[in-house]
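Observation: inputs received (chain + 2-oxoglutaric acid).
Thought: call the complex predictor directly.
Action: predict_structure
Action Input:
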Amino acid sequence: MFKEYFKFYKRMNTLDQNSDIIDFSNVVNTELIKPKELKYLTYNKEKLDDLGLKRDLSDWNCYEILNIPVGQKYWIKRCIVDYTKKPNRLNIDNHHFFQPGEDWWTTVNKTNNVKLRDQLRWATLGYHHDWDTKVYSESAKDEFPTDLSDLSKFITKWLQFPNEFMAEAAIVNFYHPSSTLSGHIDHSEYNLSAPLLSISFGLSAIFLIGGHSLDDKPTAVLLRSGDIIIMSKESRLCYHGVPKVLSPKNDQDYNYDNEWEESFKKYMQVTRININVRQVNNVGND
Ligand SMILES: O=C(O)CCC(=O)C(=O)O
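Observation:
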């Protein structure tokens, strides 16, 4: 059933009001999400600025799936400019397009190479995801960015997960309007009880989350820039995927201010970025 729904949403070119998509900016259409009351915790306000978060946290909305406005330009730039640099690994590492000593974004901008720009599909940080074996290895591991670790710790603490979250691996996914991510489960981590954070920027997308079997009917959720999905316990082992990235003409909310560098605006007009942060080991957990 997952695959049928995947195909259905993949074919969708405009947002259809009757298509059973949960839209967090318009929470009227479903009983599938539960609002959750958050206890206020004291937190250093300057730290919030550093993390690109609003100082007033009282307007965070928490549902079983969560929507949080974040300082998006900061994180988008980090993904594009910094997380694509060495020692992080990219799907295009073996393509030999780069000038010696240059990184992907510098080369793209110097050469105006749109093909190279659009060939970037993922970057891995910390423990590098092995796409073939799906096994993390101590020999394929680099330092995890402190800011992304701090953001992940903050979000999981705010959501009252009992154990301190250790961000150890991340996949930064880069999507274009024709990209999809087929249904899969995330079971490579040794610690499956720690939450997995999935943070989206740029173009909106339809996210499908189903059950433990591909035969279960999935639920479709509209993910906009700034939305965060937290998958914990059971839900990590539920099939999920992205059948559709919505092109800008469908995406009324998509609007970056004029002060942002033209190169980022241009790239983000055709791109969705998803940062998927995982704790790999059991350290600090029951
Ligand atoms: O792009 C997304 O929203 C989901 C990404 C994902 O499921 C993954 O990287 O495992």
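Thought: report the result.
Final Answer: The pocket of 2-oxoglutaric acid is lined by residues 171, 173, 181, 186, 198, 200, 207, 240, 242, 274, 276 (CB under 6 Å). The chain has one domain: 2-32+41-278.
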